[in-house]
Amino acid sequence: MEIKDNGFIFSDDSNLVDVKAVHHYLSTQSYWAKEIPLQIVQKSITNSLCFGVYKDGKQVGFARWVTDRTTFAYLCDVYIEENFRGFGLSKKLMSLMMFHPDLQGLRTYCLATLDAHGLYSQFGFKAVETPEKLMEIRIPDIYLNGKGQL
Q1: What is the DSSP letter of 121?
Q2: Which residues form the N-acetyltransferase domain (predicted)?
Q3: Confidence of residue 146 (pLDDT cuts 50, 70, 90)
Q4: Which candidate, 80, 84, 85, 77, places its Cα nearest to that of 36?
Q5: pLDDT-based confidence at 78, cuts 50/70/90?
Q6: How far is Cα of residue 36 from the mean position of the Cα atoms in its chain?
């Protein structure tokens, strides 16, 4: 699926993803994946349903779903490069992803965010109704100091 809008290309073709650009953003600019190794980013892209935003052949945005494409999808690694924010690209990307054929009729869509609740609530996301049911194993800063290698 590919959509062109005002000189931007939105695509679900993982072959278009600039892995080095995504790695650079995640490892240096994100709050959730500081220092993530390149090989981890590559493997995550290979094993996910990925979406990119491109301008003049450059990757300017990215997002991926970890999903079985049947019952569950977890949205992660969503970003738009800072120079391209304010153009509605996040909303356009979310629309493309939420209406993607492989993500229709799932029982659960989830994500975690520190600061983008306003964006995601426009697409139906809300705080977890029964957080007491959720459990996790969290290893903070796993990529710092060489931990979390393949």
Answers
A1: H
A2: 1-140
A3: low
A4: 77
A5: very high
A6: 15
Output the six-digit token pair for 29: 């600019």
pLDDT tens, position by position, 14-57 = 999 999 999 999 999 999 999 999 999 999 999 999 999 999 99
Q: What's the pLDDT at 149?
A: 59
| pLDDT tens digits along 108-135 | 999 999 999 999 999 999 999 999 999 8
The radius of gyration of the chain's CA atoms, rounded to the nearest angstrom, is 15
Q: Which of 77, 104, 109, 73 is nearest to 93 (CA)?
A: 77
Number of domains forming the structure of the chain: 1
User: Residue 10 and residue 8: Cα distance in Å, rounded?
Assistant: 7
The CATH number of residue 30's host domain is 3.40.630.30
φ/ψ region of 77 (left if φ > 0, alpha if ψ in -120 to 50, else beta) reads left
Closest among 6, 3, 29 to 16, alpha carbons compared: 3
Q: How far apart are CA 46 and CA 15, in angstroms?
A: 9
Length, in residues, of the chain: 150
Tell me the one-letter amino acid at 44. Answer: S
